[in-house]
Structures are given as structure tokens and as C-alpha cells.
């Protein structure tokens, strides 16, 4: 049972480059989330989705875009990477909002 | 804006001790409160979820309480073990159900 899988696990980018982070869940969950975790700041919500074809902004959405074309996948895109986007990115999913969120192991992204 | 504070930021105890981790939040209009565990380099694992109408939840050696009116929750760990060493995160889901706000965590080390 894979749960939530994030790809890639590590990546180094140069300022201005673009990339897409992939999150895949095999639990048929409706809700999916992208967070970033920075030292001393806790996890902050970037974007989320309440079902296939839907997306919504979270707390820190600027500089990121998302898509949920298939129920099991939630993609996070960085159009023009900036050093301030150096962080650990976590994807999570849940079946209902009153149930715990299940997290992937994270993507460690460095922007030089 | 919801703010979640966890005290202490770090804790070191000898094996076998009972311990309490604290979490406070500023807005009592919450849907639920969740406690997570995070091991180094890994994602978050859900430990306990307390609905806003509940006072406590128990799982094995873990017991979490919620006092919504005072904006406080505690995580009690009985008979601590070295395997309990990790960072423990508290998070509150606001009443609209769309945003989970995290604390910055308590880093626990249990010495053999």
C-alpha cells in the first residue's frame, strides 16, 4: 500500500527555471493538499483541491500553480523558481475533512 | 488569523518518563485538532484527531485532550521510549474545514 507518493525526492534548480512536483495517492481520496515546510515557520498551505478538476488557493499561493486533472494526482508547478522557494514540499490527502491527512515523504527543493 | 504555539520547542527526557506536550491556539472556532509525528527526513504521521465536540482521544500510550474554550490541547505520552524520539506537531482545522494551521512542533529526545 503506497499511500501518498511524491516525485522527485530531491531537486536543485537555478533561479528562473521551472519544474513540476508530482503527488500521487492510491487511496481514492477526494481532498489533496500542497504544503511547504520552512525552519521556524511550521507547515503552510500553498494550494489544495476538494476533488478532481478543482483547485483553490491556500495561505502562500504566489509563484505556484496546481492542477488536478485526475483524482489520484495533484501537480504543483513553479513557473519561474526563486531562492525564496527553497523549502521542503509536502503533499497530503484525506477522504473527508474530519479524517486525518496522510502525508508523503516530501520533496526537498533548493533554488540557487 | 489562527496562530498555533507549541511549548516547549525541544525536550529531552530519560526513558520511562511520562511527559506532556502543549499546544495552544488563538481562534476557538475549530473543526478539529490533530497531533502528528514527524521523523527526520520523513513526512507527517497522524497520531490522534480530536473533533471539536470531543474532550480527549487515546491511542495506546498516547492521550490527547482538547479544551476548545481556552484554546489548549495537550499530548500525554506514558512510559516514554527511545523510539518516541521525533518532532510532534499540533494542527487545528478551522471551522470552515478548508485550512489546517500547524504549530512549529516540539522536538522530543528520549534517552536510553
Number of helices of chain B: 0
**Fraction of helical residues of chain A:** under 10%
Biggest interface, residues from each chain: A-B, 24 and 25 residues
Tally of DSSP helical segments of chain A: 0
Report the order of strands and helices of chain A.
Answer: EEEEEEEEEEE
Quote the distance from N terminus to C terminus of chain B. Answer: 41 Å
Helix coverage percent of chain B: under 10%
Shape of chain B: globular
In N-to-C order, the SSE pattern of chain B is EEEEEEEEEEE
Please give the radius of gyration of chain B in angstroms. Answer: 13 Å
- Largest sheet of chain B, if any? 6 strands, mixed
Assembly state of the chains shown: heterodimer
Q: Summarize model confidence as the mean pLDDT of chain A.
A: 94
Total count of strands of chain A: 11
Helical/strand content category of chain A: mainly beta
How large is the radius of gyration of chain A?
Answer: 13 Å
Strand content of chain A: over 45%
The assigned structural class of chain B equals mainly beta
Number of strands of chain B: 11
Task: Please explain how this structure is put together.
The complex is a heterodimer of chains A (112) and B (112). By secondary structure, chain A is mostly beta strands. Chain A has strands spanning 4-7, 10-13, 19-25, 31-38, 42-49, 56-57, 64-67, 73-78, 87-94, 102-103, 107-111. Chain A is globular. Chain B has strands spanning 4-7, 10-14, 19-25, 30-38, 44-51, 56-59, 62-67, 72-77, 86-94, 100-102, 106-111. The mean pLDDT of chain B is 94. In chain B, strand 7 and strand 8 (72-77) form a beta hairpin. Chain B has no helices and eleven strands. With 112 residues, chain B is mainly beta. Classes of the chains: A mainly beta (112), B mainly beta (112).
